[in-house]
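Give me the 3D structure for Palmitoyltransferase.
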Amino acid sequence: MMLIPTHHFRDIERKPEYLQPEKCVPPPYPGPVGTMWFIRDGCGIACAIVTWFLVLYAEFVVLFVMLIPSRDYVYSIINGIVFNLLAFLALASHCRAMLTDPGAVPKGNATKEFIESLQLKPGQVVYKCPKCCSIKPDRAHHCSVCKRCIRKMDHHCPWVNNCVGENNQKYFVLFTMYIALISLHALIMVGFHFLHCFEEDWTKCSSFSPPTTVILLILLCFEGLLFLIFTSVMFGTQVHSICTDETGIEQLKKEERRWAKKTKWMNMKAVFGHPFSLSWASPFATPDQGKADPYQASSASNERTSPGSARGAGSQ
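Predicted structure for Palmitoyltransferase (316 residues):
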């Protein structure tokens, strides 16, 4: 085995027989169609529960501390509808990001039969992941938490208990956007509520006691500020990653660009769907990406001029 001295971070095996398909057992029998994707990771599950708890805490403070006790019914109704709609979309986006297959490559498909079925031509390249024994497409990386190779894997996010990849990046971007919006909205309402309570009697501006009201508002203010900064940064980095068509892992490893360069608008449509519409902002709309077969695309994009160079590789 030879280590290629470039930034690909792959262990290249020069001959096709070194793929060692005989060491790979056939992939397990696929589950029923529509089986829910869920990662059984204790840390990720705990982070997902905390995420829901913090959103519901903000919901409680906004409704029962600030809006319901308010005498301005128009203010309460408008802000209540806006905040609840954004919170609902944030939690729906979180569920879609967590329960959507991010683009997992079929596990254990690096068998002799499957490799022969690819009908590799001289000059074509395939990569094998020794960890999950899969023939993986170009730009796929192995996740040690999901224990799968993920197409266009950006990173593994414990807050959604899933990888952010080709199939669920839209939902992750929407999740960060809606969390940032409800955090900003909550901070603005907290500011107005403090001003109202300073001008009025504290005992009349909330159904709770003044000390309890202050503690609840300060905690919400701290939570909103923290998550506004965090999710805004994540939203910005994700949009930049989409526009440049370069995942977080590819940026970190400074991998050589081996795929066709497209415009920023085309990259956005590749993630959010064709054509542009209000469905881009909906976590319930599955983007129509018009993706080609990943194995064919991988093989075609990795053609070389030298004969007999079909080869396998280790994980990234």
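The chain has eight helices and nine strands. Let me know if you want a second pass.
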